[in-house]
Every structure is written in structure tokens, then in C-alpha cells.
Amino acid sequence: TQYPTADETIITFRKEHLGKTLSLSYNKPLHIVRGEGVYLIDTLGKKYLDTVNNVNHVGHQNPKVVAAGQRQMSILNTNTRYLHEEIVAYANALLKKLPKEISVLHFVNSGSEANELALRMARTITGNTDMLAIEAGYHGNTTSVMEVSSYKFDGKGGAGKPADTHILPLPDPFRGRHTGEDGGVAYARYAKKAIEHLKVVDENIAGFIGESLVSCGGQIVPPKNYFKEVYKHVREAGGICIADEVQTGFGRMGKTFWAFELFDVIPDIVTMGKPAGNGHPLAIVACTQQMADAFANEMEYFNTFGGNPVSSAIGRSVLQCIEDDNLQQNAREVGSFLKAELKALQQQFPIIGDVRGEGLFLGFELNDTSKKPLAHHATYLANRMKDLGILMSTDGPDYNVLKIKPPIVFSLENAKELIFRLKTIFAEDFMLQYHQL
Ligand code: PMP
Fold first, then answer.
1. What does the similarity note say (predicted)?
2. pTM of structure
3. Which member of 28, 95, 272, 357 has the greatest number of CB atoms within 10 A?
């Protein structure tokens, strides 16, 4: 008799008993049993360098974060309707990282939940429902946030754009319509236009939601002045500006702690998730006093798990690690080294059409000489890199962008290894066929 392997048994079970659209990474899925810093380790003890995981921000199984969670777990975990020091200590530490204008926090458990609350705040405060959002943006899996996530409603299985969502073209300086000096202003004009169209039918917007660097859009860095102009148009109409920092926050940008700071704007509401708890479900909606006051009608916002002592202890420990280990600075130094090395690779291998990003939030796209996106090559590259012990992910509207967003403890040595392996794969026949075009 041929018995199934342990991996085959898991795959069969998943197919039958777990959500039918839940996918697995890679053609031959990985069976990971441990995490350690920048590495994931499989059942055979093989170590993979992880350039994908933007959740385990201060390193997989960071011992300080693990200890903080274990310690508090053994003392108390309950909801936030009792007095407790930990939530105050964490809130204080987090507020120190935000501009002084943003001074009220709501604790939730996922990025989706954070954006869901942010949307509800914008709608409750303005009395309007219409939202502006960026093409190819993703803001989460709940019903309302799916409706502002064109990555989903315009993608596979999507039902198309809801009537009260207005999509602004992806402000992509490489592949988009506006590439010049004033590209930012030109792209922002679509926000103004959408608002003017609504005025004609006597409607108005609740606000705008966007990531400051658009991750699912393919690690897009919008041109300068884009956000300044969009915020201006939105605020002139009385709308609320929401910055989704779920992927980009907590020092990953290197130069700044939050991505919106790169563009010199201050949002009304900032949402955070993924890295906040280093893998523990912790997310936050931060806003100005004005927003918080305007949202505080008679209805209580209560969240059973949000801000509990364990989550708060873990969150505070993550901030402490970023501080103690100088990780924002690390993201800056390693990120700029990696970006320069990728640009050098681009000279050698013209299949790399563009290299972009900030800090340890980088991307490069693959195309032929006529700029045709090469999705198969991106998939090939990710799978071959896995064979060589490096995990990478692909994304973007054309599935041709390789994303690099590792735990920010990623070192110069790790960056050198990544480049060394990329060089090996780029020299393979399947990739080389395009260099001769
Ligand atoms: N916003 C952004 C920008 C995201 O990338 C994600 C998750 N990929 C979310 C929100 C949703 O977060 P979660 O999966 O924690 O609900």
C-alpha cells in the first residue's frame, strides 16, 4: 500500500475542511515548523531566508516579545473595562511615535477591523457614505473594507465596483499615465473630478482611504505632492483622510516611522496592524481629538479582545525592540544598500524594468523591452528562489512584481545573500531569453 506523506495528509484535509479558496504558497508548498529571526525552518531543518513576512517585524519568535506575551498571559488577560497599567503604557509609547495631532487610539485585532472602524468613523462623522480609494488597493476582508478594495472587487471572483466607491487611478510613475515632474498633481486631480461628479447629483464624500505606498498595487511609490493634493481636495469637500499603515508602518520605511510622513501630510485617521503585535493579532485605529470627539455619539465602541493586557504587553515590547535594536535605522541602511544593489542588477539584467520602494519595503518588476509584464517569469523567480532557500512573493495588477518586505532585523549579510541568489537565477536560461530582445 502507498501511504500518503504527512504533507499530503495536511493538503488533503485543508482541501476538504478549510475554506475552499484558501491558497498555499509555491507550487510545492512548504511545511514550516519554526521561526527564528529572519528565518523560517521546515520539517527537515532547512532554513529559508524570509523576505516576505512583514508581520514578524522584529524577527520571528523574537525572544523579548515572546517573553512579554508569556509573562502577561500567566498573570491576567481580560477586556479593557477594568483599570490596568499595561494599555496605558502601550498607548503612551505608541503615541510618542505619532505626530502630536494624532492623539486618540482605539485597539482592535486585525487590519480589516481597523479599517472597518476607520470607515465607520468617516461615515458617521460626515453623514456621507461615498469613499475615494486607490486602484489595486487592499484594505481587508470585511464587507465594508472589501468595498473600498479594488484589488478584490476588480479581481478574481469580484463583483465589481460598488456605487459609492470611487477609484482613483494607481499613481504609478513607471507604468501609469502621468510620469512627469507634476505627476503627483495630475494624479490627484482624479480625486477632485470624482468629488465634482458627486456634487452634480448632490452627493458628497465621507473621505479617502489609501496606503502611502501601495503594496498590492505592486509596491508603488506615488509621486511627490500626490497625497498633499489629494488631502487638499478631500478636505475642501469636508471629507476625512485615512492612511492605511497596516503594511508600511512601524519603522519599515527607514527614513520615517510612518509612510505618510515621507509625503509630509498628517492624516485624520491612521490604521495599523500586521507588525504591531509581531504575529499576535493586534491592530489600532489612531485619530485626532477632533475625529474622536465627533465619532463619540451615545453608541459605545467596545471590542472584546482589543487592547487586552497581553496584546498591550506584546505591542509595547515590539516598540521597545525597534527602539533598543535601532531597527528603523537598520531598515534605512539595509534598505538603501539593497535598493542600490537591485539597481545595479537592473543594469546587468534588463528584464528588471523598475526598482522602487523605501527602506525595507522594496519591489522590482519584470518586463520585456516593450514593457510587457512578465508574470510567468516572476512566478518562476519566486519558485527558484525558494529552491535556493529564499522566500519571495509576487504581486501587482500584472503579477510581475517581486516584493521585498522582510522582518526589519534583515541584515546587510542577508541582503548580500539575497542579491547573490538573484544573480544566479537571473543568469538561468528561462530568464536570459528576454535579455536578448
Ligand atoms: N490593509 C492592508 C494594506 C493590508 O495589506 C492588509 C492585509 N494584507 C489589511 C489591511 C488587512 O489586514 P488583516 O489581514 O490583518 O485583516
1. Belongs to the class-III pyridoxal-phosphate-dependent aminotransferase family.
2. 0.97
3. 272
Q: Atom 1 (ligand 1): residue with closest C-alpha?
A: 139
Three-state DSSP class for 352? strand
> Ligand 1: does its nearest atom lie under 6 Å from the Cβ of 248?
no
What mean pLDDT comes out for the span 306-315? 98
Q: Are 285 and 102 in contact (CB under 8 A)?
A: no
The grid coordinates of residue 159 equal 463583483
- Ligand 1 atom 10, closest CA: 139
Summary mean pLDDT of the chain = 96
Ligand 1 centre distance from Cα of residue 196 (Å): 30
Q: Grid cell 502601550 — which residue?
A: 90
Q: How far is the CA of 251 from the centre of ligand 1 (A)?
A: 17
Tracing cell 519568535 back to the chain, one arrives at 61
For residue 367, count CB atoms less than 10 angstroms from its CB and return exposed for 0-12, middle for 13-18, buried for 19 or more. buried
Dist CA 7 CA 12 (whole Å): 9
Exposure string of 141-152, with b = 16+ CB inside 10 Å and e = fewer, is ebebbbbbbbbb
Please give the backbone phi and psi of residue 119, each rounded to the nearest 5 degrees, phi first. -65, -45
Question: Does the CB atom of residue 244 touch ligand 1 within 6 A?
Answer: yes
Task: Render pLDDT for 28-80 as a digit per residue (tens, 0 to 9).
Answer: 899 999 999 999 999 999 999 999 999 999 999 999 999 999 999 999 999 99
Tell me if 404 sits within 8 A of 51, measured CB to CB: yes
Nearest CA to ligand 1 atom 13: 111
Residue nearest to atom 2 of ligand 1 (CA): 139
pLDDT tens per residue, range 102-146? 999 999 999 999 999 999 999 999 999 999 999 999 999 999 999
Q: How far is the CA of 245 from the centre of ligand 1 (A)?
A: 9
Q: Ligand 1 centroid vs 6 CA: distance in angstroms?
A: 31
Specify the pairing of strand 283-288 against strand 269-272.
Answer: antiparallel
Q: Whose CA is nearest to atom 7 of ligand 1?
A: 140
Rg (C-alpha) for the chain, rounded Å, is 22
What is the complex's ipTM, to 2 decimals?
0.99
Q: What is the pLDDT of residue 437?
A: 44
pLDDT in tens, 250-289: 999 999 999 999 999 999 999 999 999 999 999 999 999 9
Q: Is the beta carbon of 247 within 6 A of some atom in ligand 1?
A: yes
Distance of CA 154 to the CA centre of its chain: 19
